[in-house]
Design a protein that fits this description.
It contains six helices and five strands. It is about 35% helix and about 15% strand. It has helices at about 15-30, 45-50, 70-80, 105-120, 130-140, 160-170; strands at about 5, 30-35, 55-60, 95-100, 125-130. By secondary structure, the chain is an alpha/beta fold. The chain has a five-stranded parallel beta sheet, with helices on both faces. The radius of gyration is 18 Å and the shape is globular. Strand 1 (about 5), helix 1 (about 15-30) and strand 2 form a beta-alpha-beta unit. The chain has one domain (about 5-170): 3-Layer(aba) Sandwich (Rossmann fold).
Length: about 200
């Protein structure tokens, strides 16, 4: 039961998102694969097979001007062709977002909405937002009686998110039903990491 950890950070294997990805992989052990979107990516067909072979997803990003990263945006645009296919359909998704001080919960909520549109679903307590200001508050009040920051999200809370994600991934697959939709097309070949992207969606202008 493999969980795919999607590291959407601009900084790749360094920085906050990488730390979250590594911590998640340490918790999950052999049941985890990290996909770092800033790295060279496999071909389109190989990416589909990776997604299809995954039982669930942990999507990680920093916050960049109230949005997720550009590598994650490009990934979403390309894999839109896999909407409601075995790549995503009926699989649980969780999100972990790092931020300086604001915007993280909004980014995480929108990511859940996007992956819900692709065919995924959200288990309970499957969102974690860690902020620089929150971690400074935790450090400042550590050890105090009636610590007012005891319930501020921290790295250790990722274990709860992953427990629920694994529990959801292990559940028997219900008989989900997809709404009617127009399938997009994407040619097989190298991953289209840059340049124009035409998924043959309708043109009306």
């Amino acid at each position: 039961m493999n969980i795919l950890i999607i590291n959407g950070s601009l900084r790749g294997t360094s920085g906050n998102s990488a730390a979250l990805a590594k911590h998640a992989a340490a918790i999950l052990g052999k049941q985890a694969t990290i996909l770092t979107l800033s790295d060279p990516l496999p071909g389109i067909r190989e990416m589909y097979q990776l997604l299809a072979s995954s039982a669930g997803f942990l999507v990680i990003s920093g916050v960049y001007w109230n949005n997720w990263s550009s590598p994650l945006q490009r990934f979403i645009e390309v894999v839109s062709a896999f909407e409601n296919t075995p790549a995503f359909f009926g699989k649980p998704v969780a999100c972990a977002v790092s931020m300086d001080s604001v915007g993280g919960i909004e980014v995480a909520a929108r990511l859940h909405g996007v992956f819900g549109g692709l065919g995924c679903w959200t288990p309970p307590c499957s969102t974690l937002v860690i902020s620089r200001t929150g971690q400074e508050a935790i450090a400042a009040s550590a050890g105090k009686e009636n610590d007012p920051n005891e319930d501020v999200w921290r790295l250790d809370d990722l274990s709860v998110v992953l427990h629920n994600l694994q529990t959801a991934a292990a559940m028997p697959q219900p008989a989900w039903k997809a709404w009617p939709h127009r399938e997009l097309q994407i040619a097989d070949g190298p991953w289209p990491g840059s340049g124009a992207l035409d998924l043959e969606s309708p043109k009306f202008l």
